[in-house]
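Reopening this ticket.

The earlier resolution said the output was attached, but the attachment link was broken on my side. Pasting everything inline this time so it's all in one place.
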Amino acid sequence: MRRRTLLAGGLALPAIAQAGPTRRLRYASVGGATDAAIFLAMDDGIFAAHGIDLEYQQLQNAATLITATATGQVDVAGISLTPGLLASIGRGINLRVVGDKESIRAHFAATQLVVRSELAGGDMRAQLDRLRGHRVAISGRASASFVLLGLTAAQYGIPLDHFDIIELGYANMIIAFANGAIDAAIMLEPYLSRLLLSGGFTAISDFTDIVPAHGGSIVPIVYAESLATDQELGRAFMLAYMTSVRRYNDAIISGTGREHMFEVIARHTGMDIDVVRATTPSGYDPNQFVSPEFFTTVEQFFLAQKLLRAPIDISKLLDASFADHAIMKLGRAV
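Inline output:
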């Protein structure tokens, strides 16, 4: 028997009657506030309502996540858009990008370019010009942050060697700003808000001008081959996850359930709740759409930077069928 449950903000969501035992799924990511939709689905019983017992793991980086997912140590992961993820399909590793864990969207951009406040001001071209020869930190060249810097520079006709690019972990970026070692960085929440709250720094770009309005995922949801071939379980996870994503978006937009959401994020991340309240909301596509065109743009950037050896067939990496099935149940969000 199927029933409908009314969640925060008036979302009518289908609850799946569990005909059999709950099945365990192992999820992994690097952690942080961008797992908010996962945390909500765990705490609010959304996964349980869809017959899923989710085991949450935090792993160090994208390379570790790719290996863990490819070898079946985890079933589903949030993995940053890296050359390694794109190249996996050419190496016979049958990972599938099925949805969105973090995307760049208007008013939902948890990744931003920050500069010392004395370097801010004027239009974007002027601000980038001021960074000539200055140290700009990114999390790594084989990362989405390098793509975002490269696409921003290209939009204004500025070569990447205009900047002195260095690679740092996000926590180390805060230290580097404090001791004067860097002048700009592409920061991710919660480190972004911690830096801005300290004073003396300004966010000058949320990158919404260089990514598509929909589907600009920089950290997609990735299924291991075993989950991608298990239609019932793969669909159940996506239905639960999309339900939670929409609940999160609804809390941000309407305010309904927002404080509860802050409390859930603070509890799972160990962040101070006042910092959580100050963070820029994570971007989640409500229909879990991932843009093939954006992935192609990223692929071309990595090829140009010689971080990817050969072109890949994007269509073999992306699988929209699980999101499409969830939309059939929930309806398409606008």
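Reporter confirms the inline version is readable. Confidence is low (pLDDT under 50) at residues 1-19. The first strand starts at residue 3 and ends at 6.
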